[in-house]
Protein backbone atom coordinates (compact mmCIF):
# COMPACT_ATOMS: atom_id res chain seq x y z
CA UNK A 1 0.00 0.00 0.00
CA UNK A 2 1.10 3.55 -0.76
CA UNK A 3 0.09 6.57 1.29
CA UNK A 4 -0.20 10.03 -0.27
CA UNK A 5 -0.38 13.09 2.01
CA UNK A 6 -1.75 16.38 0.71
CA UNK A 7 -0.05 19.20 2.59
CA UNK A 8 -2.02 22.46 2.45
CA UNK A 9 -0.91 25.91 3.51
CA UNK A 10 -4.08 26.57 5.47
CA UNK A 11 -4.29 23.40 7.58
CA UNK A 12 -2.30 22.03 10.49
CA UNK A 13 -2.99 18.46 9.45
CA UNK A 14 -2.66 16.75 6.10
CA UNK A 15 -5.27 14.82 4.20
CA UNK A 16 -4.08 11.31 3.39
CA UNK A 17 -5.05 8.86 0.66
CA UNK A 18 -4.23 5.13 0.82
CA UNK A 19 -3.64 3.32 -2.47
CA UNK A 20 -3.52 -0.46 -2.78
CA UNK A 21 -0.94 -2.29 -4.88
CA UNK A 22 -1.89 -2.37 -8.55
CA UNK A 23 -4.62 0.24 -8.10
CA UNK A 24 -4.96 3.38 -10.23
CA UNK A 25 -5.95 6.30 -8.04
CA UNK A 26 -6.90 9.78 -9.20
CA UNK A 27 -6.21 12.52 -6.66
CA UNK A 28 -7.32 16.07 -7.32
CA UNK A 29 -4.61 18.51 -6.28
CA UNK A 30 -5.76 21.84 -4.90
CA UNK A 31 -3.69 24.80 -6.18
CA UNK A 32 -2.37 25.36 -2.65
CA UNK A 33 -1.33 21.75 -1.94
CA UNK A 34 1.96 19.85 -2.06
CA UNK A 35 1.80 16.08 -2.52
CA UNK A 36 3.98 13.87 -0.27
CA UNK A 37 4.18 10.19 -1.23
CA UNK A 38 5.57 7.62 1.18
CA UNK A 39 7.79 5.67 -1.24
CA UNK A 40 11.44 5.38 -2.17
CA UNK A 41 12.26 6.75 -5.67
CA UNK A 42 13.53 3.28 -6.59
CA UNK A 43 9.93 2.06 -6.61
CA UNK A 44 8.97 4.52 -9.36
CA UNK A 45 9.11 3.25 -12.93
CA UNK A 46 8.35 6.61 -14.56
CA UNK A 47 6.47 9.88 -14.23
CA UNK A 48 4.56 11.14 -17.26
CA UNK A 49 2.28 14.01 -18.11
CA UNK A 50 -1.33 13.68 -19.23
CA UNK A 51 -2.78 17.13 -19.86
CA UNK A 52 -2.45 18.96 -16.54
CA UNK A 53 -2.05 15.71 -14.59
CA UNK A 54 1.17 14.11 -13.40
CA UNK A 55 0.95 10.31 -13.60
CA UNK A 56 3.32 8.38 -11.32
CA UNK A 57 3.83 4.79 -12.51
CA UNK A 58 5.16 2.42 -9.84
CA UNK A 59 7.02 -0.75 -10.68
CA UNK A 60 4.37 -2.87 -8.95
CA UNK A 61 1.68 -1.61 -11.35
CA UNK A 62 0.24 1.04 -9.06
CA UNK A 63 -0.58 4.38 -10.72
CA UNK A 64 -1.05 7.67 -8.90
CA UNK A 65 -2.73 10.37 -10.99
CA UNK A 66 -2.26 13.85 -9.54
CA UNK A 67 -4.94 15.87 -11.30
CA UNK A 68 -4.42 19.64 -11.84
CA UNK A 69 -0.81 19.18 -10.76
CA UNK A 70 0.58 21.48 -13.44
CA UNK A 71 -1.65 24.42 -12.50
CA UNK A 72 -0.93 24.36 -8.75
CA UNK A 73 0.91 27.22 -7.03
CA UNK A 74 3.88 25.03 -6.07
CA UNK A 75 3.96 21.96 -8.30
CA UNK A 76 6.16 19.77 -6.08
CA UNK A 77 6.35 16.03 -5.44
CA UNK A 78 7.92 15.14 -2.11
CA UNK A 79 8.93 11.49 -1.55
CA UNK A 80 9.51 9.94 1.86
CA UNK A 81 10.78 6.65 3.30
CA UNK A 82 11.48 6.63 7.03
CA UNK A 83 13.50 9.74 7.83
CA UNK A 84 14.76 10.18 4.26
CA UNK A 85 13.14 12.66 1.90
CA UNK A 86 13.53 13.36 -1.79
CA UNK A 87 12.04 15.81 -4.21
CA UNK A 88 11.22 14.78 -7.77
CA UNK A 89 12.59 17.35 -10.19
CA UNK A 90 10.67 17.10 -13.43
CA UNK A 91 11.10 18.89 -16.71
CA UNK A 92 10.14 18.45 -20.34
CA UNK A 93 12.72 18.12 -23.08
CA UNK A 94 12.39 19.64 -26.54
CA UNK A 95 10.30 16.69 -27.72
CA UNK A 96 7.80 17.06 -24.88
CA UNK A 97 9.00 13.97 -22.99
CA UNK A 98 9.07 14.21 -19.20
CA UNK A 99 12.47 13.80 -17.56
CA UNK A 100 12.85 13.09 -13.83
CA UNK A 101 15.71 13.60 -11.39
CA UNK A 102 15.49 12.80 -7.66
CA UNK A 103 17.27 15.00 -5.12
CA UNK A 104 17.65 13.92 -1.51
CA UNK A 105 16.77 16.65 0.97
CA UNK A 106 18.99 17.12 4.02
CA UNK A 107 18.10 18.32 7.53
CA UNK A 108 14.36 17.70 7.16
CA UNK A 109 12.58 18.04 10.55
CA UNK A 110 11.10 14.93 12.01
CA UNK A 111 7.66 16.50 12.19
CA UNK A 112 7.05 16.22 8.42
CA UNK A 113 4.53 13.42 8.58
CA UNK A 114 0.83 12.92 8.03
CA UNK A 115 -0.05 13.13 11.76
CA UNK A 116 1.85 16.30 12.57
CA UNK A 117 -0.03 19.14 14.22
CA UNK A 118 2.60 21.65 13.14
CA UNK A 119 1.75 23.72 10.04
CA UNK A 120 4.64 22.87 7.75
CA UNK A 121 3.62 24.34 4.38
CA UNK A 122 5.94 27.34 4.53
CA UNK A 123 8.82 25.26 5.81
CA UNK A 124 8.47 22.67 3.03
CA UNK A 125 8.33 25.29 0.28
CA UNK A 126 11.43 27.06 1.61
CA UNK A 127 13.23 23.75 2.19
CA UNK A 128 12.59 22.61 -1.36
CA UNK A 129 13.75 25.93 -2.74
CA UNK A 130 16.79 25.96 -0.48
CA UNK A 131 17.77 22.51 -1.67
CA UNK A 132 17.94 23.83 -5.19
CA UNK A 133 14.90 21.96 -6.46
CA UNK A 134 13.08 22.99 -9.58
CA UNK A 135 9.31 22.92 -9.90
CA UNK A 136 7.83 20.75 -12.57
CA UNK A 137 7.67 22.76 -15.74
CA UNK A 138 4.30 23.46 -17.19
CA UNK A 139 3.86 22.63 -20.83
CA UNK A 140 3.84 26.33 -21.65
CA UNK A 141 7.22 26.78 -19.97
CA UNK A 142 8.91 23.84 -21.64
CA UNK A 143 11.90 25.15 -23.55
CA UNK A 144 11.96 24.04 -27.16
CA UNK A 145 15.23 25.17 -28.66
CA UNK A 146 15.26 22.80 -31.61
CA UNK A 147 15.10 24.51 -35.02
CA UNK A 148 12.12 23.28 -37.04
CA UNK A 149 12.43 21.23 -40.21
CA UNK A 150 12.47 23.88 -42.96
CA UNK A 151 11.40 21.62 -45.81
CA UNK A 152 12.23 22.20 -49.47
CA UNK A 153 11.43 25.29 -51.50
CA UNK A 154 10.72 24.87 -55.20
CA UNK A 155 9.05 26.63 -58.12
CA UNK A 156 5.60 25.57 -59.25
CA UNK A 157 4.19 26.16 -62.74
CA UNK A 158 7.54 27.53 -63.93
CA UNK A 159 8.26 26.96 -67.62
CA UNK A 160 12.03 26.49 -67.71
CA UNK A 161 12.43 27.60 -71.30
CA UNK A 162 15.66 27.54 -73.26
CA UNK A 163 17.93 24.71 -74.26
CA UNK A 164 18.59 23.58 -70.67
CA UNK A 165 15.37 22.69 -68.88
CA UNK A 166 16.79 22.69 -65.34
CA UNK A 167 18.94 25.82 -65.21
CA UNK A 168 15.99 28.01 -64.20
CA UNK A 169 16.90 30.61 -66.80
CA UNK A 170 13.56 31.38 -68.33
CA UNK A 171 11.36 33.85 -70.17
CA UNK A 172 8.48 32.82 -67.91
CA UNK A 173 7.80 35.69 -65.51
CA UNK A 174 4.76 34.14 -63.80
CA UNK A 175 5.08 31.20 -61.41
CA UNK A 176 4.43 30.15 -57.80
CA UNK A 177 6.61 29.32 -54.81
CA UNK A 178 6.00 25.93 -53.18
CA UNK A 179 7.25 24.70 -49.81
CA UNK A 180 6.96 21.04 -48.82
CA UNK A 181 8.22 18.96 -45.90
CA UNK A 182 8.32 21.75 -43.31
CA UNK A 183 7.45 21.11 -39.64
CA UNK A 184 3.72 20.69 -39.10
CA UNK A 185 2.03 23.65 -37.46
CA UNK A 186 4.85 26.03 -38.32
CA UNK A 187 4.41 29.43 -39.95
CA UNK A 188 6.18 30.31 -43.20
CA UNK A 189 7.54 33.63 -44.48
CA UNK A 190 8.72 33.83 -48.08
CA UNK A 191 11.60 36.18 -48.90
CA UNK A 192 12.99 37.54 -52.17
CA UNK A 193 16.28 39.19 -53.09
CA UNK A 194 17.13 41.04 -56.29
CA UNK A 195 20.69 41.99 -55.32
CA UNK A 196 22.31 38.56 -55.07
CA UNK A 197 21.26 38.05 -51.44
CA UNK A 198 22.53 41.31 -49.95
CA UNK A 199 19.04 42.32 -48.86
CA UNK A 200 15.78 40.41 -48.53
CA UNK A 201 12.14 41.48 -48.63
CA UNK A 202 8.98 39.55 -47.83
CA UNK A 203 7.07 38.28 -50.84
CA UNK A 204 4.04 36.17 -51.73
CA UNK A 205 3.52 32.68 -53.08
CA UNK A 206 2.36 34.05 -56.43
CA UNK A 207 5.09 35.65 -58.52
CA UNK A 208 3.81 37.50 -61.58
CA UNK A 209 4.84 40.06 -64.18
CA UNK A 210 8.46 39.97 -63.04
CA UNK A 211 10.88 42.28 -64.78
CA UNK A 212 14.01 40.82 -66.32
CA UNK A 213 16.56 40.09 -63.65
CA UNK A 214 18.04 37.60 -61.18
CA UNK A 215 15.76 36.55 -58.35
CA UNK A 216 16.72 34.63 -55.18
CA UNK A 217 14.08 33.06 -52.96
CA UNK A 218 14.07 31.41 -49.54
CA UNK A 219 11.49 30.47 -46.92
CA UNK A 220 11.83 31.14 -43.18
CA UNK A 221 9.99 28.52 -41.09
CA UNK A 222 9.02 29.37 -37.49
CA UNK A 223 7.73 26.76 -35.04
CA UNK A 224 5.34 27.28 -32.13
CA UNK A 225 8.25 28.00 -29.75
CA UNK A 226 9.65 30.74 -31.98
CA UNK A 227 12.61 28.76 -33.32
CA UNK A 228 13.39 29.45 -36.97
CA UNK A 229 15.01 27.65 -39.88
CA UNK A 230 15.69 28.71 -43.45
CA UNK A 231 15.43 26.68 -46.62
CA UNK A 232 18.14 26.49 -49.20
CA UNK A 233 18.11 29.49 -51.55
CA UNK A 234 16.50 28.96 -54.95
CA UNK A 235 17.51 31.06 -57.95
CA UNK A 236 15.67 31.96 -61.12
CA UNK A 237 16.81 34.22 -63.96
CA UNK A 238 13.99 35.93 -65.84
CA UNK A 239 14.89 37.08 -69.35
CA UNK A 240 12.13 38.09 -71.76
CA UNK A 241 14.32 40.21 -74.04
CA UNK A 242 14.91 39.16 -77.66
CA UNK A 243 18.63 38.45 -78.14
CA UNK A 244 20.91 40.39 -80.44
CA UNK A 245 20.75 38.52 -83.77
CA UNK A 246 24.00 39.77 -85.31
CA UNK A 247 24.78 39.92 -89.04
CA UNK A 248 24.85 36.97 -91.42
CA UNK A 249 27.29 37.03 -94.38
CA UNK A 250 28.65 34.61 -96.95
CA UNK A 251 32.28 33.76 -96.27
CA UNK A 252 34.80 32.58 -98.88
CA UNK A 253 32.30 33.28 -101.68
CA UNK A 254 33.87 34.18 -105.05
CA UNK A 255 31.32 36.61 -106.47
CA UNK A 256 31.99 36.06 -110.21
CA UNK A 257 30.38 37.94 -113.06
CA UNK A 258 30.19 41.58 -114.03
CA UNK A 259 29.32 42.79 -110.51
CA UNK A 260 31.47 41.68 -107.64
CA UNK A 261 28.77 42.42 -105.05
CA UNK A 262 25.52 41.07 -106.55
CA UNK A 263 26.15 37.53 -105.23
CA UNK A 264 25.34 36.05 -108.62
CA UNK A 265 28.11 33.56 -109.01
CA UNK A 266 29.44 30.35 -110.42
CA UNK A 267 30.90 29.49 -106.98
CA UNK A 268 28.92 26.68 -105.42
CA UNK A 269 31.14 26.18 -102.35
CA UNK A 270 31.23 28.76 -99.55
CA UNK A 271 30.50 29.21 -95.82
CA UNK A 272 27.91 31.01 -93.73
CA UNK A 273 29.30 33.45 -91.17
CA UNK A 274 27.43 35.11 -88.29
CA UNK A 275 28.93 37.96 -86.27
CA UNK A 276 27.65 40.18 -83.46
CA UNK A 277 25.08 37.78 -82.00
CA UNK A 278 24.40 37.63 -78.23
CA UNK A 279 27.20 35.91 -76.33
CA UNK A 280 26.29 32.41 -75.24
CA UNK A 281 23.36 32.14 -77.61
CA UNK A 282 22.60 29.15 -79.82
CA UNK A 283 22.51 29.60 -83.63
CA UNK A 284 20.46 27.64 -86.14
CA UNK A 285 21.14 28.22 -89.84
CA UNK A 286 18.24 27.91 -92.29
CA UNK A 287 18.05 27.79 -96.08
CA UNK A 288 15.17 28.33 -98.52
CA UNK A 289 15.10 27.43 -102.23
CA UNK A 290 11.52 28.64 -102.91
CA UNK A 291 11.86 32.36 -102.30
CA UNK A 292 11.30 32.05 -98.52
CA UNK A 293 8.09 30.06 -98.60
CA UNK A 294 9.67 27.20 -96.67
CA UNK A 295 12.88 26.85 -94.68
CA UNK A 296 15.10 23.92 -93.75
CA UNK A 297 17.98 23.70 -91.34
CA UNK A 298 21.40 23.71 -92.94
CA UNK A 299 25.09 23.81 -92.02
CA UNK A 300 27.74 26.51 -92.02
CA UNK A 301 29.60 24.87 -94.92
CA UNK A 302 27.72 25.04 -98.25
CA UNK A 303 29.15 22.88 -101.01
CA UNK A 304 28.31 21.41 -104.39
CA UNK A 305 25.17 23.49 -104.67
CA UNK A 306 22.97 22.98 -107.72
CA UNK A 307 22.04 25.97 -109.86
CA UNK A 308 19.26 27.95 -108.22
CA UNK A 309 18.31 30.78 -105.92
CA UNK A 310 19.30 30.30 -102.27
CA UNK A 311 18.22 32.37 -99.29
CA UNK A 312 19.84 32.07 -95.88
CA UNK A 313 19.03 33.26 -92.37
CA UNK A 314 20.18 32.51 -88.83
CA UNK A 315 17.89 32.03 -85.85
CA UNK A 316 19.57 33.13 -82.59
CA UNK A 317 18.22 31.69 -79.32
CA UNK A 318 19.41 32.87 -75.91
CA UNK A 319 19.65 30.85 -72.70
CA UNK A 320 16.09 31.78 -71.73
CA UNK A 321 14.62 30.58 -75.03
CA UNK A 322 14.05 33.99 -76.59
CA UNK A 323 14.72 34.12 -80.38
UniProtKB/TrEMBL annotation:
What sections of the sequence does the record tag as coiled-coil? Answer: none
Ranges for domain Bacterial Ig-like come to 154-240, 245-323
Q: Where is the Biofilm-associated protein BapA-like prefix-like domain?
A: 22-123
Q: Which domain of life is it from?
A: Bacteria
UniProt cross-references to InterPro entries, sorted A to Z: BapA-like_prefix-like, Big_13, Ig-like_fold, Sialidase_sf
Q: Which Pfam families match?
A: BapA_N, Big_13
Protein name (Swiss-Prot/TrEMBL): BapA prefix-like domain-containing protein
- Species annotation: Acinetobacter baumannii
